[in-house]
Amino acid sequence: MGTSTERSCLKYLFHLAQDHLDFRLPEIKALLALRGKPFCPGENFKEKSPFWCLDGLCEEDVCGIMARSVCAKSAFELWGRGKTHNELKTSLLNYPSENMSAFMQKDSTYRINVYTFNKTLEFPDRIKKIDAMDYLPFGGTVSLKSPQHIFCLLEDYGTDPNNIPEHPNYIYFGRWVADGQRELIRSYSVKNRHFIGNTSMDAGLSFIMTNQAKVKENDLVFDPFVGTGSLLVACSHFGAYVCGTDIDYNTIHGKGRSSRKNHKWRGPDENIRANLRQYGTEKTYLDVMVSDASKAVWRNAALFDAIITDPPYGIRESTRRTGSHKDNNKPPDGVYTDSHVPVSQSYHLSDIFTDLLNFSAHHLVIGGRLVYWLPIYRPEYCEEMIPLHPCLRLISNCEQTLSSHTSRRLITMEKIKEPEESDSLSHLADSHFSPYQGHNAFREKYFSGQNKKLIKDNKSDVNGE
Ligand SMILES: C[S@@+](CC[C@H](N)C(=O)[O-])C[C@H]1O[C@@H](n2cnc3c(N)ncnc32)[C@H](O)[C@@H]1O
């Protein structure tokens, strides 16, 4: 195999899945950042295209990204491209032969695949296209079953299924390097998971969140609204140690009513630890505990490499916190006396996010990431509504539509500095922060006229499952 010094100016082509469209760029950027690499799009880069050419990478980077990505399907070392097969031929004939020769040796085996996006080709047409590549100096023997090298001709017929052109808009040819982790979406499906709840996060989104949080082996990850632990499951798959809290005793202890069809009560071992055991990652389970995310229960230190969470929106689960009837008499240090009887109070959404950002500013390591979902009433949404904090830099903000009027936005922030005394309150005065206060009424708006039909049909699914 040629070394990188012999083989220069390599470009890589990524084939992206078309689901999770808005999450692809933040995911790939985060995986690049995890390897200390910038995002360098090639010319004519289009974010919504199924094909991206990226510069400035080596094969090891590409394999590292593909070992994590659920948005990318496959990656190829790009050898040529063009708007027509003639342009592709010219491009391929100009490709440095020293970049190709290691894969074209006489004693090697290979196969060529044809992949068409937005068009299905009959088998004979595929064969014709492969035969037409005979101008390339393949020296080896074809092996369909177990080739040493796989090459791929990729044709892009656009993204409109109602307007498929006769000829492709663009054609690429390259050497296959690696496939992404789409399989995780199936193998970690909540349908087959031991312990689930009404709001369990689907596997694809859990892995996207984990990737956007740049979670890596031996990291310590915390979910303050842990529920059934779907986000912890995804983090533990990549070797992170995981822990979480939830206000709901039954959820943490795996008791109470089952969310499964035909099961009234949860079984004896339905809990988060058992979920990790199911996937062979129990050794990364630290613990979960019953705790109110609005209360300070952690020692004051930067404890976590990432905080990943799906806070309650009050649609399928209540937004509650503990408090006191005499909250006006709350002690200044926040510590109640032994005679204090906690009661459940409503927890306004804007407070949830204030607390979450403050908590993250205090308990993330520098460079650590907070990834969370923010519910949005679409007619009123503007970017200024995204809660900010002086210690957290906004990295990405992408939308998942839930209904015509509601959506949730996946927010990724990175800790850039330790909080100073002035920081804990300063962000509340920030004009950027206050607009979200209006979203206190998200629940009312969700259940307002616009969503009535959805609710009636019982089809509204806040978790995108
Ligand atoms: C959307 S669910 C999280 C679902 C979780 N990601 C999963 O995959 O199962 C939100 C969770 O927050 C919990 N919760 C609500 N208020 C809370 C509070 N004040 N402190 C901690 N947890 C709370 C609820 O009990 C619920 O389990």
Ligands in the model, by name, code or SMILES, are: S-adenosylmethionine
Report the radius of gyration as a whole number of Å: 25 Å
Q: How far is it from the N-terminal to the C-terminal residue, by CA?
A: 44 Å
Biggest β-sheet: strands ordered side by side in the sheet:
2-1-3-7-6-4-5
> At the fourth CATH level, what is the homologous superfamily of the largest domain?
Vaccinia Virus protein VP39
CATH class of the largest domain: Alpha Beta
Helices and strands, in N-to-C order? EHEHEHHEHEEEHHEHEHHEEEEHEEEHHH
Residues in helices, as a percent range? 10-25%
Q: Please state roughly what percent of the residues sit in beta strands, choosing from under 5%, 5-15%, 15-25%, 25-35%, 35-45% or over 45%.
A: 15-25%
User: What is the name of the CATH topology of the largest domain?
Assistant: Rossmann fold
> What best-fitting shape do the alpha-carbon axes yield?
elongated
User: How many distinct helices?
Assistant: 14
Number of strands: 16
Short recap of the structure:
This protein has helices at residues 24-34, 59-66, 85-93, 97-100, 123-131, 183-187, 203-212, 230-237, 249-253, 272-278, 349-363, 423-429, 442-446, 449-457; strands spanning 11-16, 51-54, 72-82, 109-117, 141-142, 149-156, 170-179, 220-223, 241-246, 285-290, 304-309, 320-323, 343-346, 364-377, 392-401, 406-415. By secondary structure, it is of the alpha/beta class. It folds into 2 domains: 11-180, VC0802-like (2-Layer Sandwich), CATH 3.30.2130; 185-327 and 341-452, 3-Layer(aba) Sandwich (Rossmann fold), CATH 3.40.50.150.
